[in-house]
């Protein structure tokens, strides 16, 4: 055999080995865990001392914990759409959790309102249209087996997960929460064949379905959308877990609701079951894992938590708010940090360093381009996501982005949220509250999150130049996304309403005139009251007023530091009102270390009262908040 023949044989023998070495390595799996209404401080690794979350805490120890991760909206459906499409809700028009409603709304527009509606808000789109490029569609086309498990809330057939790129959808349920309850018997439609033994928890059953999917697809790349129902209303849990947390509850701990804590434990148990399946199948080092939440935790009063949708079995327990997001302000359905800053854990084997903390500002619109970049799957040419790949952040780099935006064109009485858009650039965050001033113009609030994470000190009056810069960014964002912008209702009965967040008495009529709030008292008890006060402000406080009156009687400010309940005469401050028809300035000292509500009684008889300044100052003389256009 000559040398040429030997060379040819050698090449033929080695060719399969060379080809084998040249084969692209198996793409990583993706497990995306999305909790519902889960607060920033609800995990032990984020500082909770009441909730027990050992599995998620272990996950944090394996990867990176983000401290400044944001939902694109303070409510569920809009954030969910942003995860799948990489688009801001302002662009898609899904701006409220309305995707379970029977009405099919596919075009962005303002709602018609009525003569008693002060601001016309958006009429949210109610379905995620199937012409969007979505993460599951792209991964499916790249050879991934795709499965959605749990809450969807982006529309029923023909807008279900099966029309958006998922091979599997369980339980194929379009509702905003589990059908009826968390603990069986459930009330899913019989056609879905979702049944459980009495006492069985939906998260146990849901996690078992995810485990089944993992085992069936252990030899091929998969994308598992593990979107838990917990911890959304109805507030319901296993009896034995509720009893456990009743014993552990500390009256001094702002997180002390035993039902909610039991729900958190069931959520964490489900995560542990799925992570164990990855270990069992030898896939832990081949799987990217993300844990995130769609909006902040429900922190407003227990009685009214999430519209009162709570289990009848636990009414006494639910007198306490479900959770606390402190030191963040407010919670679900609010554009303050408690409503949009989320817990976020990421494990990317071979890239993320165990137990690390990352302060990069990221948003839910980033997941679609990021996960494609992490898997090496190209972004389709027709896809134009608003989000960025955050891969550089995992490797110590910075993101090339000036700011993030959140658009919420809706009123939410439970949280006190007025229709608004926010922008965060660096440490600064500006809120634009549409028609928030009495004259129908926008109210602006500016906070420095580095120095004031609780958003207690509105610096808008002190930094007008910065306010103008950031407000211009909001204007550009609204224009570029063709966002629906709330406006003052031109058909508003009486021409004006109380300042944002205030209630008025039956003896009070209001109109706006020349930039002032004009009160016509028709009886003996005109008053305005508010519970929309910033948390964490320290007293004693001062209420500054500029009033012109032709009425009668002394002025009175009622105040309270209680979470609920009415105003009492033992918490009042009287001040002499001049009724000469001229403007006078008043500074009313409030001897309280904290405030939850205020009421202003501008006299006690018929007459006209004009107010041009209504501002609250803290112990240091800083503006806590103001409700009328002029500021000190």
Q: Helical content, roughly?
A: 10-25%
Mean pLDDT: 88
Which stretches of 5+ consecutive residues score pLDDT under 50?
6-24, 303-310
Q: Please name the CATH architecture of the largest domain.
A: 3-Layer(aba) Sandwich
Alpha carbon gyration radius: 27 Å
Blueprint of the fold:
Blueprint (H helix, E strand, L loop, with lengths): L2 H20 L6 E7 L18 H9 L1 E7 L5 H10 L3 H4 L26 E2 L14 H7 L3 E6 L17 E3 L31 H15 L5 E6 L11 H10 L9 H23 L6 E7 L43 H4 E7 L8 E3 L3 E2 L3 H9 L15 H4 L9 E5 L11 E6 L2 E6 L9 E6 L15 H17 L6 E2 L13 E3 L3 E6 L2 E6 L6 E3 L10 E9 L5 E6 L11 E4 L7 E8 L6 E6 L4 E11 L5 E4 L6
Question: Can you describe this structure?
Answer:
Strands 1, 2, 4, 5, 6, 7, 8, 9 and 10 form a nine-stranded mixed beta sheet that branches. Strands 17, 18, 20, 23, 25 and 26 form a six-stranded antiparallel beta sheet that branches. The protein is 21% helix and 22% strand. The chain starts with a helix and ends in a 6-residue tail after the last strand. Strand 25 (607-617) and strand 26 (623-626) form a beta hairpin. By secondary structure, it is α+β, with helices and mostly antiparallel strands.
